[in-house]
Amino acid sequence: MGLALDSIKVFPIPSSKANELFGCLVFNKNKISLTDIDKNNCCQLVENKLFIPEYTTIEPQLTKEEWTKLFSECYHFLHPDIGLVELDEEVNWNDLVEVSEERSINILEPSKTVSIPQFISSFRLEVDAEKILENIENPYSEEEMIENLPFNIQKLLNGNQKEMDKFLAFLEKKPEVALKMAIPLDTLGTGRGGAYGKFYFGSNGGSFGQGIGGIIGNLSSSASGVLRWIFVLIFVSVIRGCSFNSNSFGDYPFFTVLIILFVVVFIVALALQGSSSRSISRSGSSALLDSQRFNTLQDRYEKLAEKYIEQKEYSKAAHIYIKLLKNYNKAAGVLENGEMYNEAAAIYLKYLNNKAKAAECYEKGHAYRQAIEIYKELNQDEKTGDLYLILKEKKEADKYFQKVIDRYKANFQYVKASLIYKNKIGNISEAQVLLREGWRTNKDAYNCLNNYFSNIKTTDELAETISEVYGKDVSETNSESFLQAIKQEFKRDQKMEELTKNIAYEIVANKIDKKPEIALELLHFNEKNRSMLKDVMKYKIKAGKKA
To answer: What total number of domains does the chain contain?
Structure first.
């Protein structure tokens, strides 16, 4: 009930049973409304002596002298259930309620929490281009490589045909496993491996087919011949330095035999080396990858990539195009078509240096920060502003939109500049200023005035504006453009018909002497008036005869 202890008196009412209370009588010094009493019962105070229940009365009626004589100075309470009770003892709250001592308490306030937004206003991704590329270029870790392979990887790199056949068969049976150590096509065509880098495609007889391997082979053969001639000269000089008589040979028999043995071994070694080199040069069996196998391998890679595309495993398909086929455009296109825009953007940047496509993909992938940085490099200020708007950074967006507007103004493209003000910045008043300037300077005057009128929403304001422009900014040179502009407003509202028609008649009347065909413009304002057409045609014919 919200009662204050200092504004009430409380008397306990004993029950008819021992050690029980019937209730308490609360005597309130202040006024109290019935709504605050709630479920409690009200009492009546009679002659400031006796409390009786509500809706009861005392019979027989007593005089004041009888009230004073029968009741003492204390209050009394009369109820049908318990009878008459003297209220001689008021509740002393000081004896019953012990007030605790006030203590100073240090209240610890919790730190401010992060407010949870009620709705998502923008969404963007922050991407790591290097990590994305690494996942595409190297989808398999070293632990996933298979040790027991049916082919020799080193011989395969050297261009061995048998190992290539084994690899192709393995690629056909287990493409997933073979892909983990698949060999790029350009690797098979470079100088990696033995045989002095003799890797080429096509027939053995072609002069271009020999490539660098043939040149190096010829140099190798020439070097072996030179060494042989040098050794022969040294051998002859040594023999001539010795005496061939029997006494001399008898004195140095061990030395002579050692020289002859060394010469024989060296000549045999040179012969074997020359034979091996010629064999390799003629056959190319250990370092030649023919066109058929090359095309087969290329076809297998392409079919495997297409299979991954059908299965929507775009990362694996892109890995084949990047690492094995070296077709970077195809790899980026596959990822973009698979809506893996951030991955496609990374390839456009690293391999193709196509910043425009990279920015477009970053934008599609909601990586707006990365797209903004590229658009800034490309000086695409309008796109930069658009993305800042998506990020709810309007101040930054307006800075770049203003750059676009300044360029349009410098080139007198007032309509385009006004559209940036209206649709991007949201400042129609500035857009109207530019359009009015374009009309006054006669730079695309008709389109400027047409957009100027279309930006006015109410017909009353439009009527006032048309009259104001006609009175201030219409001259002999631009009156026809103004006539074409108000033709568009004639059908906009019935309220505009009379105003625009009157202005049209004035313009035609001022120019009809010099330009009779302008009378045809009145037909637009009188489409239902058939006699107007006849009159205009008659006037035009008559004016033509005079001319």
So the answer is: 3
